[in-house]
Amino acid sequence: MKKIILIEANEIPFRVFDRYVEQNPGGFLARFLSECIQYETICEDEQQLDPWISWPTMHRGTTDRNHGILHLGQPIAPEVEKDYPPIWEWLRLANRSVGVFGSLHSSAIPTRMQDYAFYLPDYFAADAAAWPPELEAFQRFNLVMTRNSARNVSMSLGPASVLGGFLGKVAPKLSMNTAGQILGFLVEERFKPYKRIRRRSFQPVIMADLFLDNLERTKPDFATFYTNHVAAAMHRYWAAQFPEDYREKVDVDWIEKYKGEISFAMAKLEGIIRKFMKFVERNPEYGIVMASSLGQAAIRFGRTDEFLTIVSVEKLMEALGVDRAHWASAPAMVPCVSIRMQGNHPSRDEIQSRLENIRVADHRMVYSPRPDKPLCFDIKDDYIHFYVSVDNYKGDNFAFYGNRKIPFEDIGFGMMAHEDNVNCTAQHVRGGTLFIHQPGEAKPISPGAARTQISTIDFAPSVLSHYGIDAGGRFEGKPSIRF
Questions:
Q1: Is the model's pLDDT at 231 over the cut of 80?
Q2: Which of 35, 100, 215, 362 is least surrounded, with the fewest CB atoms within 10 Å of its CB?
Q3: Cα–Cα distance, 73 to 336 (Å, whole number)
């Protein structure tokens, strides 16, 4: 029975893999994929197609209808953790050794991280806790860099204390190849500052070296490795890679500037997989599985230089009359903002009533579990998730709170730039990817060919079946996948 390394390559559809293989037919990734059994996964979630929903679906073997995990940083209900635990918890409870590296919602940290071979929570964790403790220096750096570059990439390398921890404890564990890539890029970035957008693609390169260091030392039965860097490039630059997908003519200069970004991100993924395969060659008891949980495809878009959003949650809560002692910030992804109420705070109904009194131009703040309105919010127990995003807003710089006019600055609203003159050119679709590396058994599939379709809810029960674990019929999905 093979041990599994699960590469969670977020949101990458076959369209992108096939294009990269066409461009690099003799490359490592082309050979690797030709040795893989390939499935197109179908995400059956009902409320919204987002990775912070689709990954729990894949990890827990049940759709959003049951697990109810709709936002990053959302507290996960105890009954959900009991009835639909993630794969890694199932395996740990069955006395399998497990490593987790950045999987979404792993920031819901277990009571005892030391029960895992290693445990690095996702990018949206509330603090830098990690296991073993040597990973904390990286996680501290990771969280600072992620937050500083929430929408637009910052040139900063973080506070001196955080950078010092990285240089002292993380840098010595990096391979010469990784160190050379980073140093070369930092030099290039100085001469071509617009290429700072590529910093996102170096985060998983660093993570991969740390992951392999822990993998080599602990040899767990199952390990996950998550990366979002290709998904980030696809959202922004799909129109530069696939201009033929759009009825409207895409600006030629913009295409020329960004046409290489998805391929650059894919090249970094290729390098990571190559490193993992070298580990597998030395440790043949392991196999590699790569999945995306959903995919992306083109959407209509236009030039977007800036958007209206929440720039100060402190000002917003002050305007709502909620004392600073009664709430704390929670992790979220721009343009979303999340908080957790605490202490003697106003009731849920009162908070909802106050939020529904906010209006900007023709947009009123409304309750919606999905981020599908320009101004909306969701409330779950003491957790509040805000979504404010109005592209190219040209109205007056004030909001209404009831009948009272309030300047944006006083309610925490403001304009945020899109550094690359675009909000989004591709969005989530149900079709994702699943690759199971089985050299000698897989049959090469030519780019564009049809793959067998399976549901993402089949993944978790299939993994447990692979390890001989009886889930007692608690999954929606079936163990239909052979690893």
A1: yes
A2: 362
A3: 11
Give the pLDDT of residue 69: 93
Looking up tokens 């079936």, which residue turns up? 478
With 0.85 as the threshold, say if the pTM is over it. Answer: yes
Determine phi and psi for 263, rounding to 5 degrees: -65, -40
Domain ranges for the chain, please list them.
3-300+426-466, 306-417
What amino acid occupies position 122?
D
Q: Where residue 447 falls among pLDDT bands split at 50, 70, 90?
A: confident
- pLDDT tens-digit map of 380-390: 888 999 999 99
Alpha-carbon distance 73 to 123, whole Å? Answer: 10
In this predicted structure, what is the pLDDT of residue 440? 85
Q: Looking at domain 3-300+426-466, which CATH architecture does it have?
A: 3-Layer(aba) Sandwich (3.40)
- Reading the block at residue 182, the tokens are 């980073």
pLDDT averaged over the chain?
Answer: 92
pLDDT band at 73 (very low <50, low <70, confident <90, very high): confident
Q: Which residue has the higher pLDDT, 99 or 247?
A: 99
